Amino acid sequence: MILAVDVGNSRVKWLLGDGSGRTPVHAERWRDADIGRLLDERWGALEPPDRIVVANVAGPVIARALCDWARSHWGLEPWFVETTPVLAGLRNGYRDHRELGVDRWLGAVAAWQRVRGAACVVDCGTATTINVIAADGEYRGGLIAPGVNLMQRALAGNTAQLPLPDAAAPQWPARSTGEAIITGSLNAAAGGIERALARLVAEAGQALPCLVTGGEAALLLSQLPAGVEHVPDLVLQGVLVAAGHRT
After folding, report:
1. In the chain, which residues fall in CATH 3.30.420.40?
2. Integer Cα distance of 243 and 98 in angstroms
3. Is the pTM of this model over 0.85?
């Protein structure tokens, strides 16, 4: 059994999986938390896995915390997946493959395994990333933009009179400053995704599968075009693919 872990900039997600199936995805916010206590509470009752395979974009501090916990509780050394030139039939088209975030790479790898053709992968997290897969199995690249909550925090932190809004449904036209920030950030994110999709469709001459994942995906799904597919565990699927191809 493999414990697949996806450590993002704000949350840590995990599932237990093997060749026959996967358990549900679990997610916790790790930023500003006591990592050791969080892992005690969430992993302490798990049956020890055979392997721990991690995609980490959050830096060395949380990587060390995961390693220390796994060694002391299970006697295991986690394997941290790295971005590679090729994985599971998908070629990395970045000029320097090492610059590509491992979460973006593994999400694209998992999408290629599902679609086996041209596709767009949208990861809605702290950042919103749009990633393009060509029909011939090349990861072509994409773009990175601020996520919804990051846009809201940037407005609140860099202006004198725009507060961080409370959770609310988007309104058009918005009738309060908080609603205006929420509606503006959602429209900015959704508009960027729609623009990228329209360009890809125009280039391909046909509609393309669009897979949406990430912790903020639920905020944006109602704003996106019909036909997008929500795959909450896409990066974790890629972690399992990488685990299966490790020599």
Report:
1. 2-80, 117-232
2. 19
3. yes
- 23-48: average pLDDT: 88
d(C-alpha 21, C-alpha 14), whole Å: 14
The phi-psi region of residue 199 (left if phi > 0; otherwise alpha if psi is between -120 and 50; otherwise beta) is alpha
Q: How confident is the model at residue 20 (pLDDT cuts 50, 70, 90)?
A: low
Q: How many CB atoms lie within 10 A of CB 207?
A: 11
pLDDT bracket for residue 116 (50, 70, 90): very high
**Is residue 68 annotated as a catalytic residue, yes or no?**
no
Question: What pLDDT digit, counting tens, does each position of 128-160 carry?
Answer: 999 999 999 999 999 999 999 898 888 877 776
- Residue 5 phi/psi, 5° resolution? -130, 135
Strand partners, 225: none
Which superfamily is assigned to 117-232 in CATH? ATPase, nucleotide binding domain (3.30.420.40)
Amino acid at site 153:
R
At the topology level of CATH, where does 2-80 sit? Answer: Nucleotidyltransferase; domain 5 (3.30.420)
Question: Average pLDDT, whole number, for the chain?
Answer: 91
Catalytic residue among 6, 103, 123, 233: 103
